[in-house]
């Protein structure tokens, strides 16, 4: 068990002269100035779209990639120059990479046999780990006879059987179908609760990161965007990218121009009649005619029960999905979506006024994408 | 525009029966969804209507006329495929124009232009007309494929999982777009999907297919609130509906149900009690959705004690799995719920929201106020 610390880590892939293809931007860093800390026993998710540098980061921690700049520490030890085998790390990849001719038991025992551990010690370790990932029943089987989910369980069990200080999981659920994925997610969470091993999971699935992690690191183009607890990045996204990436259905992000009328600020939208009141807490940070990107989650848009200073707009889409109802209105070329679990029914074309829940309305600078905070919040 | 009728269709691939004596009647101008798991026979059914597959038994009728021996091109159907199948060397305009330039359905270029512009405007791709498919995003390609299907007014539109290849965000977005244009389709549509949200959102009626036969036929609300069996119940809703067994008990003249190893009898409504009595049901399966279960971390009298198995925040809500004596109950909690694994939790469920199934056959028995909950449209309109 150990704390993991990255300090100003950089990675640049240097292509050899013989490289077959040319990268569009040779000098770009795959990972740029990345610093974060995972505390002892913490479960941290590294989340981002493909090409954001999340797997590169994991591979640097594991020792499979050289570090171009910066330092990585496990506990007090700087591991930049340690061989992978000396880092005391457990690794499980998306592909299971089990030894097909060996039984599950022998697959789990393989690393310990390589280190000349005694049979009784190996058995003790496997007996402890097997129930955690529900592979007790599979120990005598060989990998070709296992389902994808079972293989991944064995793969993860193998990664933790030596009780590493740090467990690294690279997209472990990506190959599995919905049901299996959900189950294994539960097992991983419970396994972590049991052994409390510092764990890092790399994933592109925001729901997976949200549901498993104590804290999430969100990356884009090699840069850290935000690190925080799931609810924190969901409720207070640092920028437009995080806002759009986290949450399903996704946050509404609309370009808006602020307009002042009768002492109230209104959101106005290009090519749309829609007007919605700006929550009062933003009044000190805004001016008439200012351009902003408005971000509000579908659950935080509601049909106003009492008249507002905004305008009425026709309902474009009503969907009853059983668990919830989704309602959308047109805003120029885009749709503004609302979701509610309340049992409401609207006809297409019905006129409604909208309200945004004040505390859940986010404003972003359209140039930088950064969050606009009211002065009260900022101070 | 046409009515599509299938009578006792059986289709076999060697030994494997893909469609098993299946009958179906799709009304004129209806948006009809075929919904079911992979391998249920959905695509085979669609191809049978299109004339790409020929059934060994049964009749296919379009507007009453038997078309079993009619070649696909003469059936006047318009199909969109899961993998788009656009002409890579043609631009968007020519791709969409192509059905109207075929020998059989040839139109003059002025008319074609009018139609292509109409449909591309509807699909919001009217600025991409000179792009080739390789220069389009997946979502745009999908719109072109849909546009090419919708540009004609055939007897029937056949859509085979048109959104399946898109990522979740884009899929939900396109579903909304499709829903919005739906009223402009102006012909019968048969739409295949394995996504329950697409089925519920788009369908006038749904047919649930399972290994070659129809499990249930009806509206989305009928399926959601009064599924004909446990198979159908599990297809709708996220998280999946909880189904566990219970015993019917009687205490001082009042009928109720015990479950999950509890002593407490959960009373049922009179309409439910009457059906349980008349059917002489002793053991039942209780189906209850996660949103209909309440929980508390403080002990509550008469509530069911369990422990937190996992607690998953997924943004706008938390999915909590509660272990009650080995049975896992999924429930939906507010998005700021924090729960330590293995911590005790008390849950309560109201039998008013429960769907009861036969313990032997897994078939639907009854739910409280079934008729009203599955046809609530009128009632809600008055409220909203």
What features would you describe in this structure?
- The complex is a heterodimer of chains A (379) and B (384).
- Helices cover 23% and strands 31% of the residues of chain A.
- Chain A is of the alpha+beta class.
- In chain A, the strands form four sheets. In chain A, strands 6-7-8-3-9-10 form a six-stranded mixed β-sheet, with helices on both faces. A six-stranded antiparallel β-sheet of chain A has the order 13-12-11-14-20-21.
- In chain A, α2 (104-114) crosses α3.
- Chain B has 384 residues and is of the alpha+beta class.
- Chain B has two domains: 4-235, Rossmann fold; 242-383, Nucleic acid-binding proteins (OB fold (Dihydrolipoamide Acetyltransferase, E2P)).
- Chain B has eleven helices and 21 strands.
- Mean pLDDT of chain B is 92; it is low at 378-384.
- Classes of the chains: A alpha+beta (379), B alpha+beta (384).
- The A-B interface holds A 185-186, 189-190, 193, 206-207, 210-212, 230-231, 234, 246-250, 297, 299, 316-317, 319-323, 326, 328, 333, 335, 337, 339, 341, 343-348 and B 124, 168-169, 172-173, 175-177, 179-180, 183, 196-197, 200-201, 220-221, 224, 236-238, 289, 291, 309-310, 312-316, 319, 321, 335-336, 341-342, 376-377, 380-381, 383-384.
